[in-house]
Amino acid sequence: MGIEQTAPAPGDSNSNFLLTTLDDVVSWARKNSLWPLTFGTSCCAIEMMMATGASRHDISRFGAEVVRATPRQADLLIVAGTIVKRMAPVLRRLYEQMAEPRYVIATGSCTISGGPFIYHSYTTLRGISDVVPVDVFVPGCPPRPEALFYGILTLQKLIQEEETIGKPGYRRKPVTAALPPNMSIDEIKEEMAKLLEQQAIVKDPLKGDSTEFMRGR
Amino acid sequence: MTAFSSFLFNYLNGVTANVYEPVSVATRAAEVWAHEPWLAIGWLALGMAVMLGFLVVIGMGLIYGERKIAGHFQCRLGPMRVGWHGLLQVIADTLKLLVKEDVVPAKADKVLHVLAPVLAIMATLLALAIVPATPWFQLIDVNIGVIYVTAVGSIGVLGVLIGGWSSNNKWSLLGAMRAGAQIISYEVSATLALLIIVLFAGSLQLSTIVESQADGWWIWRSHLAGIVAFFTFLIASTAELNRTPFDLPEGESELTAGFHTEYSGMRFAFFFLAEFINMFVASAIAATLFLGGWMPFQIAGLDGFNAVMQAIPPGVWFAVKTGGLIFLLMWFRWTFPRLRIDQLMGLEWKFLLPVGFVNLLFAAVLILMGWYFAPIPA
Amino acid sequence: MSVKVKTLDDLTLPPPGADSPLSTQEYFINMGPQHPATHGVLRLLLRLDGENVREVIPVLGYIHRGIEKIGENSSYRQTIHLVDRLDYLSALMNNWVVSMVVERAAGIETNDRIEYIRTIMAELQRLQSHTLWWGVIGMDLGAFTPFLYGFRDREYATDIFEETIGARLTMNYIQPGGLMNDIHPNFVKRTKEFLEYLKPKIDEYDELVSGNAIIQKRLVNIGILSAEDAISFGTTGPVLRASGVPYDLRKIEPYGVYGKVEFDVAVGQAGDSWDRYIVRVMEMRESVKIIEQLIDNIPEGDYMTVKVAKAIKPPEGRYYGHLETARGVIGCFIVSDGKDKPYRFHLRTPNFNNLWCLTKIAKGWKIADLVAIASSLDIVIPDIDR
Amino acid sequence: MEKAALLETITALIPNAKVIEEGVDRPAIELPPAHLPEAAKLLHDTDDFAFDMLCAHTAIDRIDDGKFELIYQLYSTKFHHYLMLSVKVDREHPVVPSVSSVWRIAQWHEREVYDLFGVLYDNHPDLRRLFLEDDWQGHPLRKDYRDDFMLTME
Predict the structure, then answer these.
(1) Which is it for the CA torsion A30, A32, A33, A37, positive or negative?
(2) Contact criterion met (CB < 8 Å) for D151 and A119
(3) A-D interface: how many C-beta pairs under 8 angstroms?
(4) Which residue of C lies nearest to B336 if distances are taken between CA atoms?
(5) Which domain holds residue D74?
């Protein structure tokens, strides 16, 4: 484990129709049932609560309102807020206590790079990707609930692409779920609608660029 | 095949002419066992298959319903994206839990850890078997039905206790201890409340109790005793179900997840499912004993009204009564805060139990004197 | 003189039966750093006897980001955005206290318009913070629905902030010498709408939670903090006022335009969890009253009195200023050596002091009470750890 | 009490106290460390002052003078007056008596100052690090603190 492994050649042993269909079904179930762990350290946690708790944004529409307090039952670790040296082992432990398959969304500048606490801070970690493998980064300080939703939708897209049965251990490099700058509100709405309808064209990851892959854990 | 056709005939006849012959599946199987053993096995298999389907449908339906109802209580929508109005949400959840990794903590007692959720779900399944959903469908009609329900219900607490103990986690243990104390205490009150109806109906058999309510449901035929018993049972069974305001064993803000803190994947789903099926069983028992089970609502003297009521199939009556009680339980959950453990025990031992005993005495006097609305059915 | 320094490993359990008549074995349990009741990454090491809390030992530092060290290496304007992230639910008040001290140190004058807007914003933030707290205490007591209601009402205030400030949570709005930008043309109208919306909602809060028998059973006469203890622990804000000490900086040393408005200081009597609860609910009504008196009278003027490009260099000295946030008194202590960066930048945060009374008042109660008491103290963890 | 009157009464009662005139924005006195506990007790108990609340306690690293300046911000809930107490200790042997028996909150403020500055408090009931791990090396708020992890802009 932990060693990078090149992806198999195109058309290699994964053309089984039954497995592919089964893959689709399992991925569908996983992506639609992302139960988050109650985990928040600072400011981002409030915006995360606005997303998961508040009735305006209402994460329950996506079936993700079943917030579990114990990592054993959670699928999604939303790291909301600064992680400092003392917290890092705890975060790692929480991640390891979660049952596979588990996904990590890192929200906020602090989890990406240390945010406003990069310089002169003797404790703040400069990004959490050294501690836990991150699937999706959501930038912002703190990110709006909508941004978090965009991150969750991006994660859903990633899960749908994943090959779950043949290669269960594969994990992508993290993706940043940031909207490009200068997007108008209408364009954002369009993009969200596209994701919601699941019509986004999914590139077959195994036939694509093999450097996109890396063995997780 | 004659039995099948006669069953179909009986059923159609029953629906059209309101002539019910309450015969449980087990009875049917026993009847034909001597000369047609394969048919008997067929009956049993059919019964089990229907029960299993029932279990899954009820479990999923209740979970979906709970999430939707909770959503609307909280000014939001609940699941919307998976299927039409989130109908497929529970299926996605179940599928995900099925294929999720199943963690057994390294220092846990592995055998007991695996056994606990099985015990919990087994207890609910056993209780579900005797619920008289309609006159023509009941898996087994035990002649000591009421005692059977309370006895089987106590197996569930074993599952919770074992689960909490075997996890080797202090929060789990605390949750399990709370569950043990709470469920065993409230079982006393629930049983006392059931006993009152047993006294009135003169039988322990659930089908007989339902039939005894043909002239009126026990909740109003028995003066005050029935109403008090009904509310006692409702409170006690809410406590037995570990639902708010009595959800101390898994009180999320106190004990992270209580007794199932260390459970993941399908085993957690078993606990989860058991809770919802238990809710159904408790509501069904309450509906059967106090609200007349599948008996239609009748008002003496209003023949036209009664005829309309009787035209509604008994299964619908049963579903409506049980559903109403389930909705009430959900309403509790999304409105009330949680009690503290000593307040919870105080409520049982200092209030509900004395009330239950006094009520039992009162009911006994009522029966001795014959001071209730209709005669005991022969 | 030699001083013995201890570690966590020095903690030991007493022998069985030491604290209770039964021969029971006590045990340690960790509540946190990840626990739903601790609202963040607070770790409470509990010594329990069954369900009874024998000792609470808070272990801090899981979100200690070294803000004071960063502040020593930032210019005065840069420190503003750091304090946003302390008590993020009182971000504007935190901005204000730094601005206040820097203004006093550097001799910067502000005008009436700035002070009016600052006061209104601070009170809006107090409302926003208290609505969130109200939801959270409901959730901690096991009722999930108030949480949603509290957040629903909080959203409206967030909208108002967003329109003027552009941020929802970490505002960075109040600057030394003024404000980041002027208020939005809609601000007055929308604030009034919000107040009209909120007033019946506060009554609804009372109906849903305050009047509930279970809530009262869980809060009344639980976790009593006497006035002497409250002062000795240095608690401030609603926690201190609930114990019967009418200490409110808005009244005692009016800053901003608090001197011009009529309002009452909500004071409790017994100092139990219920008083802490009801004091906050009363404060919500007072905040509404304050904003109503100010919102129509915002005078004309500039929103900034100094050039932003010019570095602030206060003369050498030690400056301490404080004001009342939603949780208590935040104090800012700046030591200047005449350069453009503070020589020492210290923050006296309300939650730090408020937390420690938990070690006394939670003793002897059950775990469930500990959760309720902690919730009634309304603690924000990054504010403690800094 | 007015500022001048307050300072006068204090200096009369505590002869070792030296009034700080410059660079402060509120009444301030300086005390030698050895006299801190008795002065604290007097300030807390004397009815004329009744400084019953310790608002804040922190330290300043005066590295050029080789001293730590400890600051105690006192407040009286009875008379609503303030006092800043300043105590200077040697940077090499920073030991001061604890005042946690007078103001209870001082216990944790002192732990914080010990954690971040390394000032040792005599007679402290539970002197532990507050924010950092027990095995942390050094005291980060000292001006000469450096470690491999911290990024500086120099």
Answers:
(1) positive
(2) yes
(3) 21
(4) C143
(5) 3-94
